[in-house]
Write a structure and sequence with these properties.
8% of the residues lie in helices and 36% in strands. The chain is mostly beta strands. A hairpin with a 2-residue loop joins strand 12 and strand 13. The longest helix has 13 residues. The structure holds CU-O-CU linkage (C2O) and copper (II) ion (2 copies).
Length: 549
C-alpha cells in the first residue's frame, strides 16, 4: 500500500468497522497494521474526534427544507458559511451550505417544467480547508474561494451546466436555466469549481433535487412524510468539532488521492435515528461522499427493494439484501416496516449501524387500523407494504445503434515511493485538447479500461446511459502493448443496474462498457471520476458534442 495512503488512513483507524466494499480484507489488515506500527505522520498533531466513541442514535434525522419553485419564479439559493451541530455531544461545526442547515434545500421539480435558479456565492473570502495551489486551475493568483453549482444528472445547455472553469468569487452570483426535459429521477446539485470542489463539497456544498413526472405519480409510491431523502457521507472531525481534511504531508502538494472519514453522517448528523410508522417507506438515497463507497444493508439481513437508480425508475422493483453505492450514485429504495411495529431496525454500512429506525405502533382510530395515515395520504392508494410488481419497462439501447466505440483508459501515476501522484483518463490531463467529440443524436459505446487498483465511479455530464457489461482482461498484457486479452466472459449488470445511469462503477482489471445517445445540446461538457480527489488531479476530461452529422 502506498505510503501516502497509509499516512492518512491511519488517522481513521477508528472506523475500521465501516470500511466500504471497495477494499479487500488484505487492505483492511495492512491498514490496521499501519496504525498499530505508528508509521510516520508529518502533520502537526491534531486531536481527532473518534466518532465511534460517541453515543449513536441520539439525534433525529434532519429533514431538509423542501422548495418547489412555481412557474417562472426564480429560486434563489445562497451559498454561505453556517455553524451546525453534527451530534448532540460535539460542539458546533463550521460548514458551508446552500441553505441554513447542513443539507441544502430539497428542490422539487416536474419533468418538462423549466426552472431558473440564482446561485449566489456568499461564502467567505478565505477557505478553511487545505487548498492545494499546485493543482491545475487552483493557482495563488486566483480568488481563494471560488464556486459554481452543477446539477448532477440534469440535461442542460453547456452554459448552465456548471463547467469547472465557470466559477465565480464571493459576492457574485449566476442564474442558471434548467429545462428539465427528462424523466423523473433523483438529481443532486453540488459545487464543481476547478480544483476546489473536493473541498467545497467536503465543506458541505451539496443538496438534492427530486424530479417527478406522471409515470412516477401513477405508481403511487409512498410520498409526503413517507418519502425520506438520505444523503450519506463521511467526515473527519477534530475534538473541537471542526472539519478535518487530511493532507499528504508534502507542503507544496497537500492533495491526497482519496480517504475515508471516521464519522458517517446522514443529512447532517452523525448516526441519527428516525421515527417511522409500521408501513412502507420510500428512501431517496445519495452517496454524497468524496471517496467512500457505502456497503448498505439492513440488520438481520432484512430485505429491501430498489425501484430506481441514478436516472430514474427501474423496470421493476429489485429485491436486495445488500447494495454497494459509489460516490454520486443514487438509489431509490422501498423499505417495509409493517412487520416491525415497536422495534428498532438499522441501516448498516458494512458492520456499522448508521441509521436507527424507531418503528412506532400502528396508528389506530375507531375506524380501524392505520386510518389516520390513509386520510393524510390521499394520493397513495396502496396499502402499507404493497407496491406494483412491475413498472414501465426501461427500453434497452440496441448495441448495433452505436456508430462509435471509444476505449478510454483509467490510469494512475505513482512516484518512486509508490505514492499516487495523479489519476488520468486516456493518459491525458484536463487542459489538453478535447479528444472525445460525439455528434449530436449519435449513439456511442464507451469502454472504460481500468488499469488502476481502484474502482472508479465514472460520471458523464449531459447524458443518461445504460451499462452494457464488464469483462476481466489481462492488464499486464495491455500495459505492455501486447493487445487486449480477455480473461473471462463478459458479465451483464445486475437487475438493479439495468436502468438509466449517469455514474458507473468501473472495477479494477475490468473493461466496463456503457452505451449512450448524445441528446439535447451541442457544446462542451465533461466526464470524470466522481471520487472527488481523483477528479481534481486530473481524472476529468472535456467532451464536446458536435453538430449532427
Ligand atoms: Cu456530480 Cu461533474 O458531477
Ligand atoms: Cu454531473
Ligand atoms: Cu477515480
Amino acid at each position: 500500500m502506498p505510503g501516502t495512503r497509509r499516512r492518512f488512513l491511519q488517522q481513521v483507524s477508528a472506523a475500521g468497522l465501516a470500511w466500504g466494499a471497495r477494499r479487500g480484507l488484505a487492505a483492511q489488515m495492512s491498514m490496521a497494521m499501519a496504525s498499530r506500527s505508528g508509521a510516520v505522520v508529518d502533520e502537526p498533531p491534531r486531536i481527532m474526534l473518534h466518532s465511534l466513541g460517541l453515543t449513536p442514535f441520539v439525534d433525529a434525522l434532519p429533514m431538509p427544507e423542501r422548495v418547489m419553485p412555481v412557474g417562472s419564479h426564480l429560486l434563489r439559493v445562497v451559498m454561505r458559511e453556517i455553524h451546525a451541530k453534527v451530534h448532540r455531544d460535539v460542539p458546533p461545526t463550521r460548514l458551508w451550505s446552500y441553505g441554513s442547515t447542513p443539507m441544502g434545500p430539497l428542490i422539487e421539480g416536474r419533468s418538462g417544467r423549466a426552472m431558473r435558479v440564482e446561485w449566489v456565492n456568499s461564502l467567505p473570502q478565505k477557505h478553511f480547508l487545505p487548498v492545494d495551489y499546485s493543482l491545475h486551475g487552483c493557482g495563488r493568483d486566483l480568488p481563494e474561494v471560488r464556486a459554481v453549482a452543477h446539477l448532477h444528472g440534469a440535461r442542460v445547455p453547456t452554459k448552465d451546466d456548471g463547467y469547472p472553469d465557470d466559477w465565480y468569487a464571493p459576492g457574485q452570483s449566476r442564474t442558471c436555466h434548467y429545462p428539465l426535459e427528462q424523466e423523473s429521477a433523483t438529481l443532486w446539485y453540488h459545487d464543481h469549481a476547478m480544483g476546489l470542489n473536493r473541498l467545497n463539497i467536503y465543506a458541505g456544498l451539496a443538496g438534492m433535487m427530486l424530479l417527478r413526472d406522471e409515470r412516477e405519480d401513477s405508481l403511487h409510491l409512498p410520498n409526503g412524510r413517507y418519502e425520506i431523502p438520505l444523503v450519506l457521507y463521511d467526515r473527519n472531525f477534530s475534538v473541537d468539532g471542526q472539519l478535518y481534511y487530511p493532507t499528504s504531508g508534502i507542503p507544496d502538494h497537500p492533495w491526497v488521492p482519496e480517504f475515508d472519514g471516521d464519522a458517517i453522517l446522514i443529512n447532517g448528523k452523525i448516526r441519527p435515528y428516525v421515527e417511522v410508522e409500521p408501513r412502507l417507506y420510500r428512501f431517496r438515497v445519495l452517496n454524497g461522499a468524496n471517496s467512500r463507497f457505502f456497503a448498505l444493508s439492513m440488520d438481520r439481513g432484512k430485505e429491501f427493494y430498489q425501484v430506481g437508480s441514478d436516472q430514474g425508475l427501474l423496470s421493476a422493483p429489485v429485491k436486495l439484501t445488500y447494495l454497494n453505492l459509489a460516490p454520486a450514485e443514487r438509489a431509490d429504495l422501498l423499505i417495509d416496516f409493517s412487520g416491525a411495529a415497536g422495534e428498532r431496525v438499522y441501516l448498516k454500512n458494512g458492520a456499522l449501524e448508521i441509521l436507527q429506525f424507531r418503528v412506532g405502533r400502528p396508528a389506530r382510530t375507531a375506524g380501524g387500523p392505520a386510518r389516520t395515515a390513509k386520510v393524510k395520504e390521499p394520493a397513495s392508494s396502496l396499502l402499507p407494504g404493497r407496491f406494483p410488481e412491475t413498472f414501465e419497462p426501461v427500453v434497452r439501447i440496441d448495441e448495433t445503434a452505436a456508430t462509435v466505440t471509444r476505449p478510454i483508459t483509467l490510469d494512475e501515476a505513482l512516484n518512486g515511493h509508490g505514492d499516487s501522484m495523479l489519476m488520468v483518463l486516456n493518459r491525458k490531463r484536463w487542459m489538453e485538447p478535447v479528444t472525445e467529440m460525439p455528434r449530436l443524436n449519435s449513439t456511442e459505446i464507451w469502454e472504460f479500461v481500468n488499469l488502476t487498483e481502484d474502482t472508479h465511479p465514472i460520471h458523464l455530464h449531459l447524458v443518461r446511459f445504460q451499462v452494457l457489461d464488464r469483462r476481466v482482461f489481462d492488464v499486464f498484457a495491455y500495459r505492455n502493448a501486447k493487445g487486449l486479452r480477455y480473461l473471462a466472459a463478459a458479465m451483464k449488470p445486475e437487475p438493479n443496474e439495468m436502468g438509466w445511469k449517469d455514474t458507473v462503477q468501473c472495477p479494477p482489471g475490468m473493461i466496463t462498457r456503457i452505451i449512450t445517445k448524445f441528446e439535447g445540446y451541442q457544446g462542451k461538457y465533461l466526464y470524470h471520476c466522481h471520487i472527488l480527489e481523483h477528479e481534481s488531479n486530473d481524472m476529468m476530461r472535456p467532451f464536446e458534442v458536435l453538430d449532427e452529422a
